[in-house]
């Protein structure tokens, strides 16, 4: 499902339900050749229902296609006009089903960069990491980029996440930079030794977005 890529780093995009924000970013980064996965941290997958106070709830790992067919059978016009069906169509093209961050196997894969899109998701990731025994003590950079859970904001957030990951890849991958990376760092002001902190400072100054950051050995 993730295409063969030349990029060595592993990226994870994480939101609450692995439906909107993380999947929009996953789809965009995958198109750009990143080695990327996505997850949710909630207890279940929630989608907006016909009634605002009654979300539609599914378990993680229920296939996107199954959810899509059920909602289409229930009320195709409503769920298409509310963008739920187009969202699921996008998701089906990326991977089979929503995955939960806390349910992944510790030894399954290491992620170099984890980007969350909500502070409570960031906190859930940190809580889960603290409960796990380190496997090989590889450094994982966990970063929160706050993005509202709307379709329009998810699209904007995915572009910001792409820019952030491009900067981080250059900083961690040792690539020579000749464009946005140098310009962004020159605008960050102040001398910061840590290359990750330099990138985060540059990104914040360039975009006006505040980031949360926590390194963790996994």
Automatic annotation (TrEMBL):
Its main location: nucleus. Its EC number is 3.1.3.16. The keyword Nucleus applies. GO terms for biological process: mRNA 3'-end processing. InterPro entries: RNA_pol_II_suA. It is found in: Nucleus. It catalyses: O-phospho-L-threonyl-[protein] + H2O = L-threonyl-[protein] + phosphate; O-phospho-L-seryl-[protein] + H2O = L-seryl-[protein] + phosphate. Keywords: Hydrolase, mRNA processing, Nucleus, Protein phosphatase. Belongs to the SSU72 phosphatase family. This is RNA polymerase II subunit A C-terminal domain phosphatase SSU72. It comes from Cyanidiococcus yangmingshanensis. The gene is SSU72.
């Amino acid at each position: 499902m993730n295409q063969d890529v030349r990029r060595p780093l592993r990226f994870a995009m994480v939101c609450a339900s692995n439906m909107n924000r993380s999947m929009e970013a996953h789809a965009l980064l995958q198109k750009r050749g990143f080695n990327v996965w996505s997850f949710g941290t909630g207890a279940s997958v929630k989608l907006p229902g016909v009634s605002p106070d009654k979300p539609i709830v599914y378990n993680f790992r229920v296939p996107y296609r199954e959810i899509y067919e059920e909602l289409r059978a229930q009320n195709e016009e409503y769920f298409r006009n509310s963008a739920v069906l187009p969202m699921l169509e996008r998701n089906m093209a990326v991977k089979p089903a929503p995955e939960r961050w806390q349910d992944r196997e510790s030894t399954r894969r290491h992620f170099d960069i984890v980007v969350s899109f909500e502070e409570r998701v960031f906190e859930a990731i940190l809580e889960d990491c603290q409960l796990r025994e380190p496997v090989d003590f590889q450094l994982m950079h966990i970063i929160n980029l706050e993005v509202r859970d709307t379709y329009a904001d998810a699209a904007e957030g995915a572009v910001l996440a792409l820019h952030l990951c491009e900067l981080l890849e250059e900083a961690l991958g040792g690539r020579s930079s000749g464009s946005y990376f140098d310009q962004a760092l020159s605008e960050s002001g102040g001398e910061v030794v840590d290359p990750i902190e330099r990138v985060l400072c540059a990104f914040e100054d360039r975009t006006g977005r505040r980031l949360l950051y926590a390194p963790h050995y996994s």
